[in-house]
């Protein structure tokens, strides 16, 4: 079966008179990781809940692993891993009991529980009740629960909140392993630097609408943030070259995405400069730029 695991088309969602989602479409393929970005209240959690079948959109179609509609989602529950935004378990259970409970529900071999407890550094606390766990420990347990069944679809709602940097890095390593195994991963987050280094694409939401979708390079091409270029003796080159001078800002050449190839060609062919450093725009800058100057997202209209 080669169905696209997650395909949402023209999704609308209303809470009474309030429009929480408006015409949102996207797909996530097997082995693809997509970040859901956007301001508080942009609609990220609502999209995740729609994928899960926890809420039904007011309009549009949801296609999960080739099946449409809410009922069919039940067939796939075991193949879905989910970490809710506010993870909470019954706090009289121990960490091990929680994972054993989900392992039984998801028909996962018990040895996997022991492995994950160990990998998430919870071995020392596995027989303690959850009421003694710190926020980060509960979050680690929540993430372990989400990936327990090595699912085909993994949905994580702000998974790194409360995690220390080491645990966040470990989590993204795990996400990468699942991606290699063909899992379609959606992560809602505000941590843009982690998205940049670990996720394939990002869907940027604003006020319930899709603002942009693409890889960092694609998002960069749609923003007005420039690429910086530096090389040895740049200042003296700029002094004698009119063309280069036009792009010289704050000690480096700065070009828009569409001009980058042309500039590199010029440096190589006209100046014989082969050794230069490109400073690509950071996702954080692209994000703020897109939020301030929204694109007309052509592909969203298709
Ligand atoms: N049950 C509900 N009833 C009414 N409005 C709701 C309900 N759930 C969500 N909303 C509204 O829908 C909008 C989208 O909420 P959602 O939780 O999807 O945003 P989000 O992007 O996940 O935000 P955050 O980054 O703060 O978690 C918000 O304006 C929110 O107030």
Automatic annotation (TrEMBL):
Keywords of this entry: ATP-binding, Nucleotide-binding, Transport
Domain ABC transporter, chain residue ranges per copy: 6-232
GO molecular function: ATP binding; ATP hydrolysis activity
A Pfam family recorded for this sequence: ABC_tran
The keyword Transport is annotated on this UniProt entry: yes
SUPFAM superfamilies: P-loop containing nucleoside triphosphate hydrolases
Protein's name according to its UniProt entry: ABC transporter ATP-binding protein
Species of origin: Shewanella atlantica
Organism lineage: Bacteria, Pseudomonadati, Pseudomonadota, Gammaproteobacteria, Alteromonadales
């Amino acid at each position: 079966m080669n169905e696209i695991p997650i395909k949402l088309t023209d999704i609308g969602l209303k809470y009474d008179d309030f429009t929480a989602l408006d015409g949102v479409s996207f797909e996530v393929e097997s082995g693809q990781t997509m970040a859901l970005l956007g301001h508080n209240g942009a609609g990220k959690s609502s999209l995740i809940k729609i994928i899960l079948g926890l809420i039904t959109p007011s309009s549009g179609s949801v296609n999960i692993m080739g099946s449409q509609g809410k009922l069919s989602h039940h067939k796939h529950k075991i193949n879905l891993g989910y970490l809710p935004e506010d993870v909470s378990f019954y706090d009289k259970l121990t960490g091990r009991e929680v994972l054993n409970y989900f392992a039984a529900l998801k028909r996962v071999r018990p040895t996997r529980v022991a492995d994950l407890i160990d990998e998430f550094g919870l071995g020392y606390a596995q027989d303690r009740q959850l009421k003694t766990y710190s926020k980060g420990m509960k979050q680690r347990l929540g993430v372990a629960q989400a990936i327990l069944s090595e699912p085909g679809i993994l949905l994580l709602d702000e998974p790194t909140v409360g995690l220390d940097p080491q645990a966040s890095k470990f989590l993204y390593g795990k996400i990468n392993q699942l991606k290699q195994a063909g899992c379609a991963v959606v992560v809602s987050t505000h941590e843009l630097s982690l998205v940049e280094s670990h996720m394939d694409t990002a869907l940027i939401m604003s006020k319930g609408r899709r603002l942009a979708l693409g890889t960092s390079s694609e998002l960069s091409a749609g923003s007005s943030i420039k690429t910086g270029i530096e090389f040895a003796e740049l200042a003296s080159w700029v002094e004698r070259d009119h063309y280069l001078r036009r792009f010289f800002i704050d000690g480096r050449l700065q070009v828009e995405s569409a001009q980058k190839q042309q500039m590199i060609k010029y440096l190589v062919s006209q100046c014989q400069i082969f050794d230069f450093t490109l400073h690509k725009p950071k996702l954080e800058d692209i994000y703020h730029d897109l939020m301030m100057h929204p694109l007309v997202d052509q592909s969203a209209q298709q």
